[in-house]
Amino acid sequence: MKISIIIPVYNGESYIVRCLTSLLNQSYTNWEAICINDGSMDRTDEHLKHYSESDNRIKCFSQENQGVVKARELGVRNSSGDYLMFLDVDDTLTFNALTLLINKIMSVSFPDIIVFGFNIICKERNVKKKRPDFSSIDKISYLKSVLTGKNGWELCGKLYKKSLFNFSLQLPEKIRIGEDAAIFIQLICRSKTIVACKNKIYNYIQHSSSVSHTKSIELAEETIQAACFIENYLKNTSYYSLLADEISSMFLLFYSNSTRKTFLNKENNLIKYIREKHFKFSAFCTIPLRKAVYVFLHYYIGNIVYEFLLKIRH
């Protein structure tokens, strides 16, 4: 049973050694690393060449800078494993990660998706531990839990059966925030069995310089556009009618994330759409209380401040 680990790399010379070392230290050895150099301008290519020459399980491909979605797509096409996972270049796996996943595969008869626990490591060395809150779950329940933020929508932190990628995915264009969720929702819809490995085996390293921490109106709008992409995709599935409140919850969560990029005033067309269709009590009730309070206060207090500033300006 081979596991393919797909690693997009852009200017990753500071992280690639630590990342690949965590793979070389794995107790399970039947794996391959598919490293995609996404137009790096540092010494990434030099590091990748060194590792690929010293271990034939590490395979390297290059492309002009096209972003993480295209890099992962290239990695999937060139993978040969029975299962695959995505690993960011600045993250690592615990030494027994693949062994635990293989044991889970064998114990539950080859599931389509395995969700596993992870550690969030901040710059200050604070560690937050997260793990799935289920052992096995049906597709609709899992979709609801992901759309409402109870389970994560990141592509990393999961193991996927390769056959889920046998059909082309709809890829959001020119979206840098929320593309993980847009792809992950499609994979859930294609799956039949979803199980959890509650061991914390993925180390997610947070950086203040990452795109998710960058502030701009463009990124704020892209966040909400990702939610629109997901809504449109689900409209063409048989699950849409079962997920009305949860889709609205997703919009509230994406709105919450967008406000961390910048403030979008109520005249913005995306904000108008959320306000008119998705600001409803039933949606607020399905997301975590802290998020619900944040969205409510930010929207109403934020717009009071916006109106006040307009009056001062005029």
Automatic annotation (TrEMBL):
EC numbers on record: 2.4.-.-
Gene3D superfamilies: Spore Coat Polysaccharide Biosynthesis Protein SpsA, Chain A (3.90.550.10)
Top EC class for this record: transferase
Signal sequence range: none
InterPro entries: Glyco_trans_2-like, Nucleotide-diphossugar_trans
Residues in Glycosyltransferase 2-like domain copies: 4-131
GO molecular function: hexosyltransferase activity
Keyword vocabulary terms for this entry: Glycosyltransferase, Transferase
Name of the molecule in the record: Putative glycosyltransferase EpsJ
Organism, scientific name: termite gut metagenome
Taxonomic lineage: unclassified sequences, metagenomes, organismal metagenomes
